[in-house]
TrEMBL record:
Gene3D superfamilies: alpha/beta hydrolase. It comes from Mesorhizobium waimense. Residues 92-339 form the AB hydrolase-1 domain. Belongs to the peptidase S33 family. GO terms for biological process: proteolysis. This is Alpha/beta hydrolase. One of its GO terms (molecular function) is peptidase activity.
Length: 353
């Protein structure tokens, strides 16, 4: 059993988005950087591009709980996986949620408009949402999620796809790329990191220190509670740590309302709080991406208090064929704070593959 510490303490949320702030789009390979101001022209363009897929939004998605019969190399059988599948086409976008004790409902609505241009497949990780649980606590490790994804792709006839990994899901996507590069057409890293050495940058950020201090006291009480279940702890942490995930605090109350839609579990948190590592921390993912040669989109909130924006800028500088999108005045949950500005570069990236 591989042993490693999770890189992600983020708590993704489910919420209808807010937008309208300026963004900064940076592209390499000779394309000049440009800043998108808050103008009526840009808002109109964004809406037009997003709504290209809106004609089919009322069509029912394929909601299934797949009985997985494949095995994986770590001898932890793949449980039944709950998936949402929309659209069709030669390109498949596979969406990997974060948390990890969340389900995919907090991100799936934000990628739904892409169903007009590609097949969009989202799933609940093992131990999360409506997917099955691992047979033992040792089954909660990134490597087993990678194995599950291989089994899922085989079951759905997907030879290779575009991986979109959000937060903790980004670490799953990177590990998948390392182990199965031939099955990755392109990579989208959203609010995540390829690095481990970013804590000093967070500690030096005064505004973040203030928010973290207030949230840490609440988080300590929650995790130490002898009466709360693991799932109840995951839910409580999500609510009480929102100031670390959403930069504009005026959005907190609508987000809390939307959180009721998330089916929290607690299997991963329970494993992590028990002192067990759930993700490799000795992999040079920057080199993994370089050697793979796959196109890479990096999209990050300028005020992300989980992973500082500097990690996105650093990775972009090392990858000649990457694109970097920085969304100003948004935090870790950038796709919820600015859904139009977040989705437009994702659409452009997939359209250009």
């Amino acid at each position: 059993m591989p042993q490693s510490l999770s890189c992600d303490a983020a708590h993704p949320l489910a919420v209808r988005g807010f937008g309208g702030k300026p963004c900064c789009l940076i592209a390499s390979s000779g394309l000049r950087s440009r800043r998108c101001d808050k103008t009526s022209m840009m808002r109109t363009l964004l809406r037009q591009r997003l709504l290209r897929g809106a004609g089919r939004l009322n069509e029912p998605a394929k909601l299934e709980k797949l009985h997985m019969t494949g095995s994986n190399e770590w001898r932890h059988p793949t449980p039944d996986l709950y998936i949402t599948e929309r659209g069709s086409g030669s390109t498949t976008l596979i969406v990997i949620h974060g948390g990890p004790d969340w389900d995919h409902s907090y991100i799936e609505p934000y990628v739904t408009p892409l169903q007009d241009m590609c097949r969009v497949l989202s799933f609940d990780m093992r131990g999360c949402g409506r997917s099955g649980r691992a047979q033992s606590p040792e089954g909660y490790h990134v490597d087993y999620v990678v194995d599950d994804l291989v089994v899922l792709m085989d079951a759905r006839g997907i030879s290779h796809g575009v991986l979109l990994g959000f937060s903790f899901g980004g670490r799953v996507a990177l590990r998948f790329l390392q182990r199965h590069p031939e099955r990755v057409k392109a990579l989208i890293l959203a609010s995540t990191t390829a690095y481990q050495d970013f804590q000093p940058e967070l500690d030096a950020w005064e505004e973040r220190r203030e928010r973290y201090g207030a949230c840490r006291e609440k988080a300590d009480r929650i995790t130490a509670s002898p009466t709360l279940s693991a799932a109840e702890k995951a839910r409580a942490l999500a609510f009480d740590c929102l100031p670390l995930d959403v930069y504009d605090l005026s959005h907190i109350e609508p987000i809390k309302t939307a959180l009721s839609a998330v089916r929290f579990s607690g299997e991963w948190t329970k494993r992590w709080l028990g002192g067990h590592r759930i993700s490799p921390d000795d992999v040079d993912y920057e080199t993994v991406i370089k050697l793979s040669g796959v196109p890479c989109l990096i999209i990050h909130g300028a005020k992300d208090m989980r992973f500082p924006v500097a990690v996105a800028e650093r990775l972009h500088r090392t990858l000649p064929h990457s694109r970097l999108v920085i969304l100003e005045q948004t935090g870790h949950l950038a796709h919820m704070e600015a859904p139009e500005r977040w989705l437009l570069p994702v659409r452009e990236f997939i359209d250009g593959l």
